[in-house]
Amino acid sequence: MMPSTDFFEYQSRSRVFYDRILVGYHDEALRLVERLLNDAETDANGCIVADTIHPKKVRFMGYQDRAYRFVFYVRNRRSPPAGEVVRHRCNNRRCINPDHLVAGTQLENIEDDRDFRANGVDFALLLRG
Ligand SMILES: [Zn+2]
């Protein structure tokens, strides 16, 4: 599947946003990450989820992104390289547990979905990191 033009535009806006955070706003961003993690509930699988139906969004410095992406990039002190997406090892897109998030490609994301449908998630494996 070819990523759409929208995807590339979103990616470059996203990269500019995280670059700005890294240069001058990382402490504030980390405080927001801590607040997001504290305000959410931990479920039986160790997933940290907000009380929302869809992935929670977060607003910072006038830019909005999904909370799991914000948590991942701020905590890892990086901005997304072209083509990168944040994957959920737990297959719960509402989850913001940093231990359940990993960088990958769109193709891997699609393969994850297929794999989860076939095999489910081994949460015991996730705990060991
Ligand atoms: Zn999770």
Key terms for this structure?
4 helices, binds zinc ion, two-stranded antiparallel sheet, alpha+beta, globular
Would you mind describing this structure in some detail?
- With 129 residues, the chain is of the alpha+beta class.
- It has one domain (5-127): Homing Intron 3 (I-Ppo) Encoded Endonuclease, Chain A (Alpha-Beta Complex), CATH 3.90.75.
- It has four helices and six strands; from the N terminus they run H-E-E-E-E-H-E-E-H-H.
- It has a two-stranded antiparallel sheet.
- Helix 1 (5-39) packs across helix 2.
- The chain is globular, with a radius of gyration of 15 Å.
- It starts with a helix and ends with a helix.
- The model has no long low-confidence stretch (mean pLDDT 90).
- The protein binds zinc ion.
- Zinc ion binds next to loops.
CATH topology descriptor: Homing Intron 3 (I-Ppo) Encoded Endonuclease, Chain A
Q: Could you tell me the number of beta strands?
A: 6
End-to-end distance? 30 Å
The main sheet comes to: 2 strands, antiparallel
What would CATH call the architecture? Alpha-Beta Complex
Question: Quick recap of the structure?
Answer:
The chain is α+β, with helices and mostly antiparallel strands and 129 residues long. It has 4 helices and 6 strands; from the N terminus they run αββββαββαα. The mean pLDDT is 90.
SSE order and pairing:
Blueprint: H1 5-39, E1 41-42, E2 48-49, E3 57-60, E4 63-66, H2 67-75, E5 84-88, E6 101-105, H3 106-119, H4 123-127
Antiparallel strand pairs: 1-2, 3-4, 5-6
Helix pairs in contact: 1-2
The protein binds zinc ion (ZN).
Residues 47, 90, 92, 95, 97, 100 line the site of zinc ion.
